[in-house]
Amino acid sequence: MELEHDVRLLESEKVRRQRLTDAFVYGTNPHEQMHRTNTVRLMFSILIAALIAAGCVGASFIMNMLEQRQQEREQRENPAAVVVVDDDAGAAAALPAPHSPARLTTAPAAEGDLR
Asked: At residue 2, what are phi and psi to the nearest 5 degrees?
C-alpha cells in the first residue's frame, strides 16, 4: 500500500513537470496563444495600412498645394497668359486669365440693350 502511494506521487509529479515544461515552451494554451498572435498581427496590419494611406493623402495634398503655388506664380509673372481648364470628361477649354485685358474690355452697347 505504501509503495502504491509513492508510485502515484511520482507519476503525478512527472505529469506536473511535463505540464510546466509544455506551458513554458508553448504557452498556457497553444490555441489561445495562436488566437492572440493572429489578433496582434491583424491590428498591426491595419495600423500599417492606415499609416500608408495617411502618407499618400499627405503627399497628394502637398503636391496639389505646390502645383497651385506654381500656377499662381506663373499668373503673377504673365497676367495675359491663357488658363486651360480641363474638366473630368477630358475636354479642354482655353479661357483668358482672370486679369487679362481681353476679359476686361466689353463691346459697346446697342441703343436698345439694357445691360
From this structure: -60, -40
